[in-house]
Amino acid sequence: MSKVYFASARIKKWKYSESMPGKLEHLLEEINLSGYFEKDEWTAVKTHFGSEGAHRVVRPVFLRKVVDALRAVSAKPFVTDTVRIKGLDYLEVANQNGINHLSVNAPVVLADGLYGNDNIMVKAGEILGEIAVASLIHDVPAMVVCSHIKGHIQAGYAGAIKNLAMGGVSSSHRHCGWKCGRGAMHTIGEGKLLWDEEKCALCLQCEEICPLEVIKFENELLRYNEDDCWRCGRCTRVCPEGALTLPGDDKRFMKSLAEAAKAVLSTFKPNKVLYINFLTEIQPECDCMPAADVPILQDQGILISDDIVAVEQAAMDILLKSKPLPQSATLSSLKKGRQSKDVLFGLSKKPYRLQIEEAVRLGLGSKEYQLIEI
Length: 374
Known about the structure:
Elements: E1 2-8, H1 20-31, E2 42-46, H2 60-72, E3 76-81, H3 87-96, H4 101-104, E4 108-110, E5 119-125, E6 129-134, H5 135-139, E7 142-148, E8 150-152, E9 156-158, H6 160-167, H7 183-186, E10 194-195, H8 205-209, E11 215-218, E12 221-224, H9 234-238, E13 244-245, H10 250-265, E14 273-279, E15 301-305, H11 308-320, H12 329-335, H13 343-348, H14 354-361, E16 369-373
Parallel strand pairs: 1-16, 2-3, 2-7, 3-4, 7-14
Antiparallel strand pairs: 1-15, 5-6, 8-9, 10-13, 11-12, 14-15
């Protein structure tokens, strides 16, 4: 049975040791980092840099605590993510969200290069075949995965598995493009964007949100560069009229997330990866969107484990016991008759627990865990 350490977001006394940063320090002591990371060992601290306007990422103060704890055991940490928009722009977004070498006390680098195509093909399983793992994550010997728990338009639940599957894999490959990157998970077949002219209100939100500027409107007609598209699906998410669609399969998508996560983890030796799930500012959508909605659930705390399945299962179990917050996206969901004790499922209707089931089947960990609260 795997151990999962937990620190609640609630405080009992007004003292530093009861604060979230203080509790994270305690969690990192309990997990005994020296048992995982060696002296002078390069160690990736994998997180999500967010987007311009999406500020509910893992806060720099927490990343700093992880970095300082790694330095205390003489490891050599750096903070990283893969390219989601143009590389230099993404580093500036990280800086705007407070993630820089001064705030986190470590270099902040892009795992797959400025152009997002610095990667290595890795065997990934029945669905994906091979996937383009970011070269820096592929080559580094150790990693701490810092995941912001939240909802997601496609995954339903986004945690450590999604962080590795999409954040450890590049958007595209130099030769086989999006079909070897995240796009292989996002879509099935060719995954061609479909536009319904009759439904389109010409609001141009799809054009504005596209990270690669592959959508343009000329004479009120959509022009779409299919070859350069990463298939991220942001355009379909923001279309208020439902005029844009990408073909997809929920079950296949969930299983492919687990496959991609396994591919990323296959590049590490045993006991070289730790997982920290931050159940804070739990918003309904991914941090890659150009805005962050108000939280749908109250802050719950921080989980840490060396078992990706156990830490995800623990996070899901905690969220299932949480009540939806008023004045959040859950209210509109309830008005539409989508009431559910499972808030994330009620919002997305996505079978997100399939991520866990497939991860178990692939041997990534165990759903059985011992929760140790500090």
